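Quick one, tokens below:
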């Protein structure tokens, strides 16, 4: 053993790097081990999120939106632009620059907080030792009183549509197309499929999304999902539900797909295929056989309500454990575990974790859906309000969608809020705060909201729960 730490974190994604920084802030001697490599071949902290996930996808979503606006939104303002063109090197290069800025920023934060980074693949050994394997095969071992496993997740690969990095790609590949594919196929109508499908549709691709489930966005509230599906169809996203991919063959003229829907077997040829059917915990090679840490049937690390594995001093957080695979969920677990290790009161409320899809319009929600409340037999009241009646949304020419609020029929406590519309990724935060403090719809209804703002839709939805919305019939 070459060194002894209070805390070693394996993984420098949003869960791991946040855990490391918080542990160091609390006075714990901390190391963080990560093997992610940037385009320059150097260590790139930040995990999937900063390198090939949340941050680069949002950069491309914003760039593609600017291009889409030229033809679809500017004319209504009386603004015309002729012969707009995209330089793909700049389009992708801007994204890469942003990624490098943020991954480098994590390195600076480590330095400022005295977190020691190690570049290599970490493996937990018995006795809270961590073996680090460098890219050249060299090994070293370090030890700690506590080890936090934050190894993240990887894309699920289909056996009949294996990634080749060129024709059949995962999310990382879809962020680096050198030209706009004329025909793009997407397997999976989840967050990744919808966001990256939207990017390339705005840039001119004919996008077909094949989804195996019969219901669109089944994890979201049904009313919100229905509105979102309608808008995506208007934008030209061809979403085929209850359709199962059977085969994908790369040929000279493209990727030949065979899938089955209600009408039987179908054929489709695309230039590029994005497989986005979900992610799985990345725990392969993470644990020596004698550590005592256990995995569930899906390869996730088993933990208790405090993210402890049951092995003294070994914790696990983020995508590698139960719960939604969301960067912010992992980050909060990282903070909580660091605080528990330091003897403080860490806390994560999984009932108020917000979900966001950064499409156009955006989709966001927190808490229970109407179906979940019905299935559980919980009495509730519903309040809704459309963005079409919000002055700011109309002025922005983005008056699409609504806010839907669910409150307990007896106590009025807010049980869930669901939104589709402009800027809802930001609007959901107000509702999360109210829910965290066990607020009621009456609380939000009584709070003064600035006019004209998009947040007035939340205010009016809260009023609508009690059938007293001002700007719509109840």
């Amino acid at each position: 053993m070459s060194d002894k730490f209070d805390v070693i974190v394996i993984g420098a994604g949003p869960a791991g790097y946040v855990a490391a920084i918080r542990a160091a802030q609390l006075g714990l001697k901390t190391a963080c081990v990560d093997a992610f490599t940037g385009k320059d071949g150097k260590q790139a902290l930040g995990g999937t999120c900063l390198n090939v996930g949340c941050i680069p996808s949002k950069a491309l979503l914003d760039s593609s939106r600017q291009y889409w606006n030229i033809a679809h939104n500017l004319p209504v303002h009386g603004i015309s632009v002729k012969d707009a063109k995209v330089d793909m090197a700049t389009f992708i290069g801007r994204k890469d620059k942003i990624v490098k800025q943020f991954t480098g920023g994590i390195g600076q934060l480590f330095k400022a907080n005295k977190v020691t980074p190690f570049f290599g693949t970490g493996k937990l050994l018995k006795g809270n030792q961590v073996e680090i394997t460098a890219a050249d095969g060299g090994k070293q071992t370090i030890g700690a009183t506590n080890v936090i496993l934050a190894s993240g997740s990887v894309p699920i690969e289909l056996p009949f549509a294996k990634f080749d990095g060129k024709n059949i790609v995962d999310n990382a590949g879809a962020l680096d197309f050198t030209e706009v594919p004329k025909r793009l196929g997407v397997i999976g109508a989840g967050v990744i499929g919808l966001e990256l499908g939207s990017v390339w549709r705005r840039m001119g691709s004919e996008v077909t999304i094949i989804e195996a489930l019969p219901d669109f966005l089944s994890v979201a509230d049904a009313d919100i999902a229905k509105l979102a599906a309608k808008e995506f169809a208007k934008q030209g996203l061809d979403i085929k539900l209850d359709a199962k991919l059977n085969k994908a063959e790369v040929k000279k003229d493209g990727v030949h797909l065979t899938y089955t829907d209600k009408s039987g077997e179908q054929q489709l040829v695309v230039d590029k295929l994005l497989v986005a059917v979900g992610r799985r915990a990345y725990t392969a090679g993470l644990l020596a056989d004698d550590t005592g840490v256990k995995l569930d049937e899906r390869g996730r690390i088993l933990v208790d309500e405090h993210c402890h594995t049951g092995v003294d001093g070994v914790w696990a957080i983020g995508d590698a454990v139960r719960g939604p695979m969301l960067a912010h969920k992992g980050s909060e677990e990282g903070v909580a575990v660091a605080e528990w290790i330091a003897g403080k009161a860490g806390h994560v409320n999984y009932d108020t974790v917000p979900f966001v899809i950064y499409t156009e319009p955006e989709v966001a929600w927190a808490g229970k859906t109407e179906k979940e409340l019905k299935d559980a037999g919980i009495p509730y009241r519903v309040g809704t309000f459309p963005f079409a009646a919000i002055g700011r949304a109309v002025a922005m020419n983005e008056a699409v969608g609504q806010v839907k609020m669910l409150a307990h029929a007896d106590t009025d406590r807010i049980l869930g809020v669901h939104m589709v519309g402009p800027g809802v990724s930001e609007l959901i935060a107000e509702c999360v705060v109210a829910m965290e403090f066990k607020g009621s719809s009456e609380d939000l209804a009584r709070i003064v909201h600035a006019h004209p703002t998009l947040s007035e839709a939340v205010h009016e939805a809260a009023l609508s729960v009690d059938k007293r919305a001002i700007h719509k019939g109840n």
